[in-house]
From TrEMBL:
<dbReference type="Pfam" id="PF00550">
    <property type="entry name" value="PP-binding"/>
</dbReference>
<feature type="domain" description="Carrier">
    <location>
        <begin position="2"/>
        <end position="80"/>
    </location>
</feature>
<dbReference type="GO" id="GO:0017000">
    <property type="term" value="P:antibiotic biosynthetic process"/>
</dbReference>
<keyword id="KW-0597">Phosphoprotein</keyword>
<dbReference type="GO" id="GO:0031177">
    <property type="term" value="F:phosphopantetheine binding"/>
</dbReference>
<dbReference type="InterPro" id="IPR020806">
    <property type="entry name" value="PKS_PP-bd"/>
</dbReference>
<protein>
    <submittedName>
        <fullName>Actinorhodin polyketide synthase acyl carrier protein</fullName>
    </submittedName>
</protein>
<dbReference type="InterPro" id="IPR006162">
    <property type="entry name" value="Ppantetheine_attach_site"/>
</dbReference>
<dbReference type="InterPro" id="IPR036736">
    <property type="entry name" value="ACP-like_sf"/>
</dbReference>
<dbReference type="InterPro" id="IPR009081">
    <property type="entry name" value="PP-bd_ACP"/>
</dbReference>
<keyword id="KW-0596">Phosphopantetheine</keyword>
Amino acid sequence: MQMTLEDLRRILAECAGEGDFLDPRVDIADTSFTDLGYDSLALLETAARIEQEFGVSLPEDLIATLDTPRSLLAAVREASVQTI
């Protein structure tokens, strides 16, 4: 199963609670995680949820370089292709 932006939006909400990213009319794909109110710890929690739900593990050093939901989705897709 491929992870979508809506899947990521839901996981972000589970990890961070309320925020602009909850409104599906708001395009968050290229909004920085900083602008979304995310810090490195929240991203690590998000990555852990992605691994639990989608079976895709992202290295911590890679997670630190991801700055937008689009870049995170691309990394998840690339990692899932490599594990097949």
